[in-house]
């Protein structure tokens, strides 16, 4: 399942590609025919993410305020099998790198890190980009990329021979497409989502009310941190469970759970009520920074540059990006203790028994 940074990145991309444009909407699969009919001919105003949920506003005209009753909200959640697939002409592009936060993580071995990514500029295509949980090229729970031919392109560079505006036409949908959005320059196909529904503003508020604070929510950092601390400290469940509970904190998935707890030195089995507010505040801040880095780069990279092995072990490539995730039995990058793995609520948990002893 994509983690929160992927959906925030998707929202930014949709705003660039479709913002203030009138779209054609259809449901090739037929399961969302009535909803698509309501969106057809509407203007895409903007979209945003709350955790792993995407909310997109449509209206009859571009100048409609977001709190207007004329707004129709599209609410989607990709779940385990959902995907957005994009294609378009040479103008259907987004920046390869969004604004990079001040967080130095990444490998000296050529894997993406702040110093490498910070120097990039210009546009690579979202055309052909698949935001999916299947066959992810850059991370197990993130973004996969293909071009129109279906050939994988991890670098997301604009494919050769991309059609100029006016020459491009959307190809027939592939597979069971729940919702197709088409502009003059590109198409976005949504397949296999857990949720695809239309809401009014009250419905949007109801979705947000059942979710915990999102560390990436603009202008709500202090409020979100305080709510997160309170959410955790009033529960006697393990912090490893609480970080995956979207009503406690929205957007954190299995990778960010494992990595942020390691970076904080907190045992995943420690009860939330027994963790100090100070430590929880630092845990929130670190998740916010790591998620922001993920939005900027499209990658989950958590290892501080000084901790990356040099040279990188050929049989342990994850050591260039992650401290503990998918590294069961490998030596801890800081103390050498074998990384432990176990199940917690149906998901694999990773931690260092020594570095996370409390």
TrEMBL record:
<keyword id="KW-0326">Glycosidase</keyword>
<dbReference type="Pfam" id="PF06827">
    <property type="entry name" value="zf-FPG_IleRS"/>
</dbReference>
<keyword id="KW-0238">DNA-binding</keyword>
<keyword id="KW-0234">DNA repair</keyword>
<dbReference type="InterPro" id="IPR035937">
    <property type="entry name" value="FPG_N"/>
</dbReference>
<keyword id="KW-0456">Lyase</keyword>
<dbReference type="InterPro" id="IPR010979">
    <property type="entry name" value="Ribosomal_uS13-like_H2TH"/>
</dbReference>
<protein>
    <recommendedName>
        <fullName>DNA-(apurinic or apyrimidinic site) lyase</fullName>
        <ecNumber>4.2.99.18</ecNumber>
    </recommendedName>
</protein>
<dbReference type="GO" id="GO:0140078">
    <property type="term" value="F:class I DNA-(apurinic or apyrimidinic site) endonuclease activity"/>
</dbReference>
<dbReference type="InterPro" id="IPR015886">
    <property type="entry name" value="H2TH_FPG"/>
</dbReference>
<keyword id="KW-0511">Multifunctional enzyme</keyword>
<dbReference type="GO" id="GO:0003684">
    <property type="term" value="F:damaged DNA binding"/>
</dbReference>
<comment type="similarity">
    <text>Belongs to the FPG family.</text>
</comment>
<dbReference type="GO" id="GO:0003690">
    <property type="term" value="F:double-stranded DNA binding"/>
</dbReference>
<keyword id="KW-0479">Metal-binding</keyword>
<dbReference type="InterPro" id="IPR010663">
    <property type="entry name" value="Znf_FPG/IleRS"/>
</dbReference>
<keyword id="KW-0378">Hydrolase</keyword>
<dbReference type="GO" id="GO:0008534">
    <property type="term" value="F:oxidized purine nucleobase lesion DNA N-glycosylase activity"/>
</dbReference>
<feature type="domain" description="Formamidopyrimidine-DNA glycosylase catalytic">
    <location>
        <begin position="2"/>
        <end position="99"/>
    </location>
</feature>
<keyword id="KW-0227">DNA damage</keyword>
<keyword id="KW-0862">Zinc</keyword>
<dbReference type="GO" id="GO:0000703">
    <property type="term" value="F:oxidized pyrimidine nucleobase lesion DNA N-glycosylase activity"/>
</dbReference>
<feature type="domain" description="FPG-type">
    <location>
        <begin position="323"/>
        <end position="357"/>
    </location>
</feature>
<dbReference type="Pfam" id="PF06831">
    <property type="entry name" value="H2TH"/>
</dbReference>
<keyword id="KW-0863">Zinc-finger</keyword>
<dbReference type="InterPro" id="IPR015887">
    <property type="entry name" value="DNA_glyclase_Znf_dom_DNA_BS"/>
</dbReference>
<dbReference type="InterPro" id="IPR012319">
    <property type="entry name" value="FPG_cat"/>
</dbReference>
<dbReference type="InterPro" id="IPR000214">
    <property type="entry name" value="Znf_DNA_glyclase/AP_lyase"/>
</dbReference>
<dbReference type="GO" id="GO:0006284">
    <property type="term" value="P:base-excision repair"/>
</dbReference>
<dbReference type="GO" id="GO:0006979">
    <property type="term" value="P:response to oxidative stress"/>
</dbReference>
<dbReference type="GO" id="GO:0008270">
    <property type="term" value="F:zinc ion binding"/>
</dbReference>
């Amino acid at each position: 399942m994509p983690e929160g940074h992927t959906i925030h990145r998707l929202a930014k991309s949709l705003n660039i590609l479709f913002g203030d444009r009138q779209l054609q909407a259809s449901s090739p699969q037929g399961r969302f025919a009535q909803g698509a009919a309501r969106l057809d001919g509407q203007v895409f105003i903007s979209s945003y993410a709350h955790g792993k949920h995407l909310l997109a506003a449509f209206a009859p005209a571009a100048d409609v305020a977001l709190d207007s009753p004329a707004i129709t909200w599209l609410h989607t959640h990709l779940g385990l099998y959902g995907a957005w697939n994009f294609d378009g002409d040479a103008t259907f592009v987004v920046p390869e790198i969004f604004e990079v936060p001040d967080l130095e993580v990444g490998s000296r071995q050529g894997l993406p890190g702040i110093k490498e990514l910070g120097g990039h500029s210009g546009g690579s295509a979202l055309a052909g980009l698949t935001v999916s949980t299947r066959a992810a090229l850059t991370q197990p729970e993130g973004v996969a990329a293909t071009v129109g031919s279906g050939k994988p392109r991890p670098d997301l560079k604009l494919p050769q021979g991309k059609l100029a505006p006016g020459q491009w036409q959307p190809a027939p949908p592939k597979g069971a497409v729940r919702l197709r959005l088409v502009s003059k320059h590109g198409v976005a196909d949504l397949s296999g989502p857990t949720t695809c529904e239309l809401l009014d503003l009250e419905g949007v508020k109801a979705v947000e009310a059942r979710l915990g604070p999102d560390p990436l929510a603009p202008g709500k950092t202090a409020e979100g941190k305080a709510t997160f601390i309170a959410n955790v400290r009033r529960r006697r469940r393990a912090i490893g469970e609480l970080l995956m509970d979207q009503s406690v904190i929205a957007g954190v998935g299995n990778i960010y759970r494992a990595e942020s707890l390691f970076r904080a030195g907190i045992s995943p089995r420690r009860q939330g009520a027994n963790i100090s507010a100070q430590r929880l505040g630092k845990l929130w801040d670190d998740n916010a920074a790591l998620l922001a880095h993920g939005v900027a780069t499209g990658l989950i990279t958590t290892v501080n540059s000084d901790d990356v092995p040099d040279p990188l072990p050929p049989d342990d490539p994850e050591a260039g990006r992650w401290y503990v995730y998918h590294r069961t039995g490998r030596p801890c990058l800081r103390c050498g203790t074998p990384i432990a793995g176990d199940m917690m609520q149906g998901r694999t948990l990773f931690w260092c028994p020594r570095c996370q002893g409390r």
